[in-house]
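New to this. Look over this protein:
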Amino acid sequence: MKRFLGVLAVVLALAAPVAAQQAIGEGKWWKRPRIAQALALTPQQTAELEKIFAKSRPKLIDLKADLEKKQFAYQQAMGADKVDRKEVEATIAAREAARAKLQTELSLMELDMKQVLTPEQREKAQELREELRERLQERRRQMRQGAAPDDDGAAPPPRGGAMRRSPPATPPNP
């Protein structure tokens, strides 16, 4: 049980920064019909967003893999029979540096994407982000209270967003 809680804590720690970066959701948000329509994206904007994502994705993949390796090294150091404080401190510093690099690259991609949208589209994207945030908070509240999924019968979103197959692409913050 202790080991499970430790693994759960690690998954949540990895998920936190990535989840925070997900504005309208995971993946290529600009290709989702509901979002593309709500933002009134033009074909040129969609193509430009795709180009930005394609340019950033290889580096995001590498940075995510590096973060996972650093997280594994940290787990190994913490799980040793005799824990060496200096070694653990070094693995923590390396893990957090890797996390910062990933967050920086995600933020730069987000900045590039933001520049593709008009001010009105950025405002609408912010509204969509807020709606998503509110829905997620409501689902979490329902789960804590042991209630059923929301009224549309949808199950709550999967946990552990940092373990996705591909890095997230987020719409820009206005």
Q: What stands out?
A: The longest helix spans residues 43-79. The chain has one domain: 2-149. The helical segments are 2-21, 33-39, 43-79, 85-114, 119-144. Confidence is low (pLDDT under 50) at residues 3-25, 156-168.
